[in-house]
Automatic annotation (TrEMBL):
UniProt GO MF annotations: tubulin N-terminal-methionine acetyltransferase activity
Residue ranges occupied by any N-acetyltransferase domain in the UniProt entry: 33-180
Protein name per UniProt: Alpha/beta-tubulin-N-acetyltransferase 9
Role description: N-acetyltransferase that mediates the acetylation of the N-terminal residues of alpha- and beta-tubulin.
Record keywords, A-Z: Acyltransferase, Transferase
Originating organism: Nothocercus nigrocapillus
Encoding gene (name): Nat9
Family under the similarity heading: Belongs to the acetyltransferase family. GNAT subfamily.
E.C. numbers: 2.3.1.308
EC top class named in words: transferase
Substrates-to-products reaction catalysed: N-terminal L-methionyl-[tubulin] + acetyl-CoA = N-terminal N(alpha)-acetyl-L-methionyl-[tubulin] + CoA + H(+)
Domain of life where this protein originates: Eukaryota
């Protein structure tokens, strides 16, 4: 989901960060229910339609953008060293190539590397955009895959999730993934949950994602593939 820029846009030297968005620009993570693909310009129109929803704007603390602004956001995120974003697809529909990428979209998952002093801390967000796709396991598997990717590829050892107090389903899901509630912000009506990835938690996480296949987005030559910007 589109993150509110302050305070997440706190200036962080690119030299201190892995090239987060560049790192996953050709990565596909295929799970049983959810498949994660890099966020390209082909995904922007569908994403833009989602974000016209007042519910999603509220849940993601986002402001409505024009379509051109959405394209600009996608381009900037591809160059941002502090964000790692995947679009979540429906594996069943996508793997059968029954639909183009954008027609299989169900949401997105993000890691924000926001702490200048601690590059091992990642703030994670998951959005399953349409109510008809919620409660079907997409969010849980996509979150686990992103966490595993962050641990293995970005050196993340601690995760935080900041969730609106009204979003009980999301809070419950993160608690099932071993996150603990550590703070409540009454002003922003937001709960902060945290997971420290001990050796035991890392073993559990990698077990949960042992079925995930990593592929090259370019090599798959998906129907929706377009020159990436």
């Amino acid at each position: 989901a589109r993150a509110p820029e302050p305070p997440r846009a706190a200036a962080v030297s690119a030299s201190r960060r892995p090239r987060a968005m560049k790192l996953n620009e050709d990565t596909v993570l295929q799970g049983e229910r959810a498949t994660l693909v890099p966020y390209t310009s082909a995904h922007v129109p569908r994403y833009h339609e989602w974000m016209k929803s007042e519910e999603l704007q509220r849940l993601t603390a986002s402001e409505p953008l024009s379509l051109e602004q959405e394209y600009e956001m996608q381009r900037s995120w591809r160059e941002d060293a502090d964000k790692c974003t995947f679009i979540v697809l429906d594996t069943e529909r996508w793997s059968a190539q029954a639909c183009a990428d954008e027609d299989c979209m169900v949401g997105d998952v993000n890691l924000f590397l926001t702490d200048v002093e601690d590059p091992t801390l990642g703030e994670i967000e998951i959005m399953i955009a349409e109510p008809s796709n919620r409660g079907r396991g997409f969010g849980k598997e996509a979150t686990l895959m992103m966490m595993s990717y962050g641990v293995k590829n970005l050196g993340i050892t601690k995760f935080e999730a900041k969730i609106g107090q009204e979003n009980e389903a999301s809070i419950s899901m993160f608690k099932k993934l071993h996150f603990k509630e550590v703070a409540v912000n009454s002003i922003f009506q937001e709960v902060t949950l945290r997971l420290d990835v001990s050796d035991q938690e890392k073993h559990w996480l990698l077990e949960q994602t042992s079925h995930v296949k990593e592929k090259s987005y370019t090599d798959l030559k998906l129907p929706a593939a377009v020159p990436q910007t």
